């Protein structure tokens, strides 16, 4: 977690970073993770999540972040 940020703020920040890296909208990632494209917007405006939903979202984001570092997403395989 980034220092000085709440868990929700950190989660929202991760969504924006992944969306930028993937070149897609935050609402698209929100829909993939929460099955609702508006959840991140609600969280950004002060909404909350239960612990189980937060944990599932973090797990899915972890996988998405790992995918960003695979050869397919980094311009090819090992040279």
> Which structural category do the helix and sheet elements fall into?
mainly alpha
Number of helices: 4
> What overall form do the CA principal axes indicate?
globular
Helix content: 55-70%
DSSP, total strands: 0
Order of helices and strands: HHHH
Q: Largest sheet at a glance? A: none
Q: Whole-number radius of gyration? A: 13 Å
Strand content of the residues, in percent? under 5%
Mean pLDDT: 88
End-to-end separation: 34 Å
Describe this structure in words.
With 79 residues, this protein is mostly helical. Helix content is 62%, strand content 0%. It has 4 helices and no strands. α1 (7-22) crosses α2 (26-34) and α1 runs parallel beside α4. The longest helix is centred in the last third of the chain and has 18 residues, at 51-68. The radius of gyration is 13 Å and the shape is globular.
